[in-house]
Write a structure and sequence with these properties.
CATH architecture of the largest domain: Distorted Sandwich
CATH topology of the largest domain: Beta-galactosidase, Chain A, domain 5
Distance between the termini: 82 Å
Strand content: 35-45%
Number of domains: 3
Shape: globular
Structural class: mainly beta
CATH superfamily of the largest domain: Copper amine oxidase, catalytic domain
Largest sheet: 16 strands, antiparallel
Amino acid sequence: MNLKAVLILLGLALATIFALVCVLLTRERGPRSCQHLPPEQEDTEDGQSLVFADLTPEEMSQVVRYLQGQLGVPLVEASRARPWENCIAWVDVQVPAKAEVLRFLDGGGARPPREALAVLYFGKQAEPNITEYVVGPLPTPAYHRDVTVQKYGGRLPYHRRPVTGSEYVDINALIQRELKKAPRFLAACCESDGTDLVVLTTAPRGFKSGDRVTWFVLFHSVAGTGYYLSPVGLEVLVDHGDLHVSRWQLRQVFYNGRYFASTGDLEQEFVAGALEVVRLKQPRADAVLGSMKPRNPPGSPGPLQLEPQGPRYRVRDNRVTFQGWSIAFGMNPNTGPRLFDIRYRGERIIYELSLQEALALYGSNCPGGMSTRYLDGSFGIGRFAYELLVRGLDCPYTATYVDRHYLVETDTPKTNQNSLCIFEHDSALPLRRHFSDSQSFYYGGLRKTTLVIRTISTLINYDYIWDFMFHGSGAVEVRVHATGYISSSFFYGRGTDHGNRVGPHTLGTMHLHHIHYKVDLDVDGQLNSLETQDMEYEFIKDPWSRHNTIERPYLRRERLEKEDEAAFPLNAPMPRYLSFVSPNANKWEHPRSYRLQVISFAGKHLPTSSSMERSVSWGRYQLAVTRRKEEEPSSTSIYNQNDPWTPTVAFADFINNETITNEDLVAWITVGFLHVPHAEDIPNTVTVGNGVGFFLRPYNYFNEDPSVDSSDSVYFSSEEDVGACGANHLACLSSAATCAPHLPPFHFGGFLNL
């Protein structure tokens, strides 16, 4: 072999080795990172959505400094304020009146002044009260006005204020002092001296206006697990209505079916041998009921949602845009998520979509359980929407996470990091499709992808997952799932009349979850009417022979004229089609409309004979439609929890048979479910089957399904090459998606602000 041939072979060998090394190195590096492209829809908004924006931390601080300098009374920081002192309870944005906002958004009017709503507890006055002020203009406040009487028709009594953190601290100290009077009983019943027992509040607090008397349920506490499943059978009734903590008293004690005047009496009965005691072992962390610690090591990773070219939505300030949708989002510290100015293809569909209240009403044969009717707005649905802790679990890993800020029971703004997430969700279900196997052969379809805005509130034991979804068909879906721990009572006697036994001494107590929403629809303009459609059968002779009978369905349409007609009782049959209609018609001469479709399994509403029913009278109706009024911004009040007998806001008063034809209308919607806890609720209630909500769907609003314009659509015939990108873009995913998503490093800050 000559030298030239040797050199050629050597060169080929070196080239082969170099190529193999490159392949191996490329494999070791893994796939390339996905390249993010700008969203298809350009965001041309000029900051108009900021008219709805939550307050910034700087604005909150400015309001606090202004009030401290201008009110002329001493203000103590709420986190350490005693009942006889004055404090700033909470601050939120004051959303301008709708007419002002629409003049700005649609009519070229001036931007409304930015204002805050500040709520103060005045304990150090001749007549202690709650006062609400509007403070503005922001960011540099120069005025404040008292709006309490204007909003509520009178002063707000001091006893209606929610219980503060510092008040709970004082209550717990009182209970601990009282427990020391029963050392031998506690050692026998619970292997405890009382210091390792935790108390859970109930509500409301008494039986008449002015009461502030609360049952507290005691549980064994084990670090790292939910104490809610470990009741010890002991409950105490505390009177904490006096302004002076030194005058608070423990009024009554309950244990294992018996009532006592004091812990001293309880101890005396025990020592005398006259008390039957259920002896509980101190629970061990490795065997406690309800532990959520994994029992098996991690397996292989599950499916991961991939955005090969980055998010197809855009978030700017408090506004998100996605494939024709535009939504302004925010969070009320009390009532939770709120959305404004929801538009599709440039047209406003909904002016306001907001959560109003979440009611949890319990049954039990123990006093704490049987008297519990939690109104979660008074505890803080938005305030307790903590960080969505685990990417890929609470929300998809690649979702966009947004911080929320609040000022409640403090003079310093707090931040719940990453407490709201936004993502596009692939439901793995066609939005629409058809395979044609007759006449001509073709396939057409569209994937169902949805924009989701989500937040999750932890309200003591329960976790509520709040979802707002926006579909390519122009539909809006609202859904809530309940998970977390059940609340429980100590199991004794006929406990199973009120639930199921889920542990050695634990009764999972029956309860209902009822959730209330406000939807201010503006369907093709502000002036709408309410129309129902349902089916009936008519019996006719067949027109071609007149010998046979046909049961022919026909459509019964009705236009509802008055509010009383549009108040549909909870769990009663409701028309299958109920639409908010515009005076304007589509191409086919039908009124442009949006249809409401409720998905709910609600329990029974509190009987109207109940002394507290008016405070939750929104729960009488699965749907009530009223004329929109600026003086009726919400169906309830955070002050209703501690004085449900004289409610600050009674929704039943909103329904006064006014005309609802061609008016600005609001839909008030109740959804919910009855929950009878069972063994499978341990350790946690699962979301499967525990989700309810409603849809708002276009009904003759368009001339055809708007999703036909989606660039995600697929269509090909039998004559086309279905593997070609031009005929079927999904055939190109193998090249378009050969990349690895950018997964941000895991960060956890969820235990802040606790």
